[in-house]
C-alpha cells in the first residue's frame, strides 16, 4: 500500500500537464542556509537536503569536517522540528494533506553506519517513519543496491544512472540524481547548446521511462537555468536560493510540461 501511494503521489512529476510549484523545489545543502530547515519548510519545498557525518554515535550536519565545529546535529536541526510540524498537521508534513516531503540525507562517510545511526534516532519518532507522505532518501555514500530491500520501507535511495538495478532494488529508488556538469558546462548566460540539451533530455527521459523523477545538482542556480531545467522536464529544481526560487515559481507558475 505504501509503495502504491508513493507512486500515486509522484504522478504529477512524471509527464503531467501540471505546472511547477514549490512542491518541485529542492533545498540543496540546506544546513548552510541562515535558517536551516525553517526557511525551506516555510516555503513548502518538496525536498530538503542534509549532509551528515557520524561522530561518536551522533549525526552532525556539515558539508566538510571544518563545519563540524558548528555542532549542528541532524536530530536537533531537522528531525525534532519536522516531528513537531507533522504533529501540528495531524500526521502530515504540510497543512495541505496532498503534499509530500522528501528528506534527502547524504552520508559524507560510509553510508552503512550512518543509516544505522539514522534508524536508531528515527525509532523514537514513529510519526516520521509510519508516514506515507514523508520519505527518507539516502544519497551520496549509499550502500550496495543489493541491500536496498533489506532496509525498512520508509528508507529510500537516490538512483545513479551508471548502475543497473534489479527490480527489487529499483523499487526502493525514489529518484535519479546526477551532476549537471556530466552533461553540460553551461553557465546560464547564453542559450543552452543543442547537444547539451539532447544529453540532458535523454537522461530525463531515461529516468521517466523507469517511472522515477530526476534531479540535476551543480547546475546553474538562476531563473534562466530554472526555466531550462523545467523545459527539459527535470522534476526537482535544485537551489541554494530558497526565497528567490519560491518567488520565481509563484510569479511564473513554471511552464506546463
Automatic annotation (TrEMBL):
UniProt-listed Gene3D superfamilies: Phosphatidylinositol (PI) phosphodiesterase
Keyword field: Signal
Range of residues in the leader sequence: 1-17
A Pfam family reported for this protein in Swiss-Prot or TrEMBL: GDPD_2
InterPro entries hit by this protein: GP_PDE_dom (IPR030395), PLC-like_Pdiesterase_TIM-brl (IPR017946)
GO biological process terms on file: lipid metabolic process
GO molecular function, one term: phosphoric diester hydrolase activity
Recorded superkingdom: Bacteria
Transmembrane region(s): none
Record-linked PROSITE patterns: GP_PDE (PS51704)
Domain annotation GP-PDE: ranges: 1-249
Protein name according to UniProt: Glycerophosphoryl diester phosphodiesterase family protein
